[in-house]
Design a protein that fits this description.
By secondary structure, this protein is mainly beta. It has two helices and 17 strands. It has two domains: about 1-150, Immunoglobulin-like; about 155-220, Immunoglobulin-like, CATH 2.60.40. Strands 2, 3, 6, 7, 10, 11 and 12 form a seven-stranded mixed beta sheet that branches. A hairpin with a 3-residue loop joins strand 13 (about 165-170) and strand 14. The longest helix is centred in the first third of the chain and has 7 residues, at about 1-10. It is elongated.
Length: about 220
């Protein structure tokens, strides 16, 4: 009778709330929808609240509640090659019963090295999420909440590391072209600017093209 009643009732609902004053960062999700995600720097503490609503269940028996902080490099073409670089678990509640319609649990992850920025590419990505699991003897209830990591640098740090790119190309005695790009490092939404100077032209040119090639590399090989 207990099993039959559990199958008929709706399962509890898990909701994750990050700090309310947290900056938001707009980015597309896996369904190509624009979403505002809570944004953290690589040194910030990740904290907030987890709300469990019983959904009119009474005395819901569980085998424990835990939350896991996950940092993952995703390979969109082959999920078997996904690689976790962070996997930290905290137990929030031991086995027992949930009696209140709404249960609130606090979580906090401090001192975690978050070495990569969040990234969404065509073939690979870097993803951070909190996975909350309410274990049950019938079926585990899982909630995944994504957030974004942004690695901030001061203007002086950026300027120090961001020297321009200069190169000369051509054919000896026939063509000499100088290429200069304003910076060597760009944010994903930056505009690439620079100059192309023809210092010597002794051949007839039909056209000239500049091509920007984007490469996504995972591990020791490209994707």
């Amino acid at each position: 009778m207990e099993l039959f009643s559990s199958l008929l009732s709706k399962p509890p609902v898990i909701k994750v709330f990050f700090e309310s004053d947290r900056e938001k960062y707009k980015m597309k999700n896996s369904k190509d929808e624009w979403i505002d995600y809570p944004a953290y720097s690589d040194t910030d503490i990740i904290k907030g609240k987890i709300i469990i609503e019983l959904n009119k269940n009474k005395n819901f028996e569980h085998n424990g509640i835990k939350v896991e902080l996950i940092g993952m490099i995703e390979n969109y073409r082959d999920k078997k090659q996904n690689s976790k670089f962070i996997s930290l678990t905290k137990d929030l509640e031991p086995s027992g019963f949930l009696n209140n319609e709404i249960t609130q649990l606090d979580f906090e992850f401090s001192g975690v090295e978050k070495q990569f920025e969040t990234y969404r590419g065509l073939n690979i990505g870097v993803k951070y999420s909190l996975v909350t699991t309410l274990s049950s003897k019938y079926k585990n209830i899982v909630n995944e909440a994504e957030f974004v990591i942004l690695k901030y640098k001061s203007p002086s740090e950026i300027e120090k590391e961001n020297s321009p790119i200069k190169m000369d190309i051509g054919i000896e005695q026939w063509l000499h072209v100088s290429l200069e790009i304003d910076k060597s490092k760009y944010y994903l939404r930056d505009v690439v600017t620079g100059d192309v100077v023809f210092k010597k032209v002794s051949v007839r040119l039909q056209s000239m093209e500049i091509e920007i090639i984007k490469k996504e590399v995972i591990g020791s090989g490209s994707s």
